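Reopening this ticket.

The earlier resolution said the output was attached, but the attachment link was broken on my side. Pasting everything inline this time so it's all in one place.
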Amino acid sequence: MNSSSQLKKLNPDESHANTAEQRIRNLGIKLPLPPEPFGTYVEAVRTGSLLFLTGMLPTEGRTAKFTGRIGADLDVEAGTRAARLAALNGLAVARQQLGSLDRVTRLVRLGVSMRLSEISANPQGSLMVLRSCCKMYLERT
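Inline output:
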């Protein structure tokens, strides 16, 4: 089957269901309010067609919801929830800046920073935390 015959079979409503905003609704994800900066920086800078975000923290407003090191102060499950919240905050800021996540065409770079305890002997747990952040940006319906 060639691509043109595949395109003909698509229902017009199906293409709308594949937008970023629709996927978020279908997944039952409610984005938080964009976080407020803790210092004298801006959380996003737009230049041309590119949007650059600062590092996102696992916060609600100006309140840190998770603090500490994974393996000492936080277990892997809490670290995973923290990474997910930071990812949601990034999406919320992008939506605020662009008006809609449907305007995002590509994620060019994703940097993730984690504080691990010196005695953290669970590299698999650290990978689970990292994957949870990346997964937020890749989830599909």
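Reporter confirms the inline version is readable. The chain has a mean pLDDT of 79. Residues 19-138 form a domain with the 60s Ribosomal Protein L30; Chain: A; fold (CATH 3.30.1330.40).
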